[in-house]
């Protein structure tokens, strides 16, 4: 048996030994399509020679230097790439090792900003239910995922409260228009600001396209503009968690580019280093930086491995490959094909209630009955069945279960690498469709 406590103590996982393009191979020689890039991580696929070369070159030159003493060339370069053109007014970057750490950094930077601009009474965050921002205690406090929160509830911070997400499939009323539903969500957010005291709120945290907890749920038009307006009215920051949806996954480099808003702080991770190295980060708006610059002049936070030279060199190479190979064009083209194939395969499927997503980030939501949207009995563990059936057919996808927050139907995410071809999209949807049918059939 394995001595790792990463996952199950009862069952050993297959051992991955090699990756090439969209394929992963285990020790027994099984080939599996990485159809979700892990958890929407491996956006370049596996074995990219340019990224590997960049990592080796960095190691030959400099493996580590503590940021209390030095910056390094790869970190400077990565910051230039990420904010060189100040997209949306984002002028500065901070790099760490994961999405959770990046969320922690966003939370602390936002708080520090209000100390610097002499609004120390701002101590609260508003986030959303059915959200996931990470597993460290601060990021988990922001997360609305009831299942992940429950065991640690006594340890979580009361500084975070939660409002409804924009989840039209289930939450828009039958006789409600999109605009009326958005207006209702804005009224709820405004009421939460009023309940807390508007001048006590630091910021609002949300994923532009919700990943793990809602299965690629996109916001309705006007939702994020409305959120931005509420935050602006009360002087609070808009913090967008693009750990999953960012760095090209939805067809634009940043998902907020499709929402007509810019964040004050943006969180990135998975697509930043594409899994070649562990790296996350935050991008910070110039006005927040001005507050810090006029005050203490430094971000009072840090980790031993922040802006790690090798991780930053990998991310530089990943971002160069995305730009030089014009991979976002492929994300949009293959994303449109993936949508089309999913609609063809599942559009009339009696157990597929919703097909949703953007770019190369798509999910289906499974229900017992399309009319009632009834969720499957969580005891059936449909998500595990989907995972098993897909794996058996040589496909890794990302299914989540019906027990999340008690009311969510099972969903399964596809997030193939940006290099995916049309033939591969067909193969992925074929295997996915067969796996879904087999998993449903096994439920009786
Ligand atoms: N935020 C979002 C939106 C995520 O999807 C995740 C990871 N699934 C995280 C934060 C946490 O990132 P990590 O697992 O790298 O700590």
Automatic annotation (TrEMBL):
Record key words, sorted: Aminotransferase, Pyridoxal phosphate, Transferase
Keyword check for Cell membrane: no
Lineage of producing organism: Bacteria, Pseudomonadati, Pseudomonadota, Alphaproteobacteria, Acetobacterales
TM helices/strands, residue ranges: none
Protein family: Belongs to the class-III pyridoxal-phosphate-dependent aminotransferase family.
Cofactor entry: pyridoxal 5'-phosphate
Pfam families: Aminotran_3
Molecular function as annotated in GO: pyridoxal phosphate binding; transaminase activity
Biological source species: Dankookia rubra
Protein name (record): Aspartate aminotransferase family protein
Any one GO CC term of the record: cytosol
Tree of life domain: Bacteria
């Amino acid at each position: 048996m394995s001595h790792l406590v990463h996952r199950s103590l009862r069952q050993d996982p297959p051992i991955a030994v090699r990756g090439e393009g969209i394929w992963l191979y285990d020790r027994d020689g099984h080939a599996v399509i990485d159809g979700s890039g892990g958890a929407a991580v491996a956006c370049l696929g596996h074995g990219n020679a340019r990224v590997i070369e960049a990592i080796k070159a960095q190691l030959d030159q400099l493996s580590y230097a503590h940021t209390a003493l030095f910056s390094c060339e790869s970190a400077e370069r990565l910051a230039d790439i990420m904010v060189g053109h100040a997209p949306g007014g984002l002028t500065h970057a901070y790099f760490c090792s994961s999405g959770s750490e990046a969320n922690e950094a966003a939370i602390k930077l936002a708080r520090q900003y209000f100390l610097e601009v002499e609004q120390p009474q701002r101590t609260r965050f508003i986030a959303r239910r059915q959200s996931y921002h990470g597993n460290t205690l601060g990021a988990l406090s922001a997360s609305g995922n009831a299942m992940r929160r429950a065991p640690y509830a006594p340890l979580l911070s009361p500084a975070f409260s939660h409002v409804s997400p924009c989840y039209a499939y289930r939450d828009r009323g039958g006789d409600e228009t999109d605009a009326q539903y958005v207006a209702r969500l804005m009224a709820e957010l405004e009421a939460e600001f009023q309940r807390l005291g508007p001048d006590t709120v630091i910021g609002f945290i949300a994923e532009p396209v919700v990943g793990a907890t809602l299965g690629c749920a996109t916001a309705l038009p006007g939702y994020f503009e409305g959120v931005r307006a509420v935050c602006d009215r009360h002087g609070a920051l808009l913090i967008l968690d693009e750990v999953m949806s960012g760095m090209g996954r939805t067809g634009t480099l940043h998902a907020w580019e499709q929402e007509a808003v810019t964040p004050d702080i943006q969180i990135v991770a998975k697509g930043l280093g594409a899994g070649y190295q562990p790296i996350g980060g935050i991008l910070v708006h110039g006005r927040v930086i001005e507050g810090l610059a006029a005050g203490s002049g430094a971000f009072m936070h840090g980790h031993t491995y922040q802006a790690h030279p090798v991780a930053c060199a990998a991310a530089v190479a990943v971002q160069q490959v995305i730009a030089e190979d014009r991979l976002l064009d492929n994300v949009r083209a293959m994303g449109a094909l993936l949508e089309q194939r999913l609609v063809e395969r599942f559009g009339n499927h009696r157990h597929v209630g919703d097909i949703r997503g953007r770019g190369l980030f798509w999910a289906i939501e499974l229900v017992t009955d399309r009319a009632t949207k009834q969720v499957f009995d969580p005891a059936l563990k449909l998500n595990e069945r989907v995972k098993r059936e897909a794996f058996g057919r040589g496909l890794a996808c990302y299914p989540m279960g019906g027990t999340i927050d008690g009311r969510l139907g099972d969903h399964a995410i596809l997030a193939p690498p940006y290099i995916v071809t049309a033939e591969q999209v067909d193969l992925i949807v074929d295997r996915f469709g067969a796996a879904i049918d087999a998993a449903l059939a096994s439920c009786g």
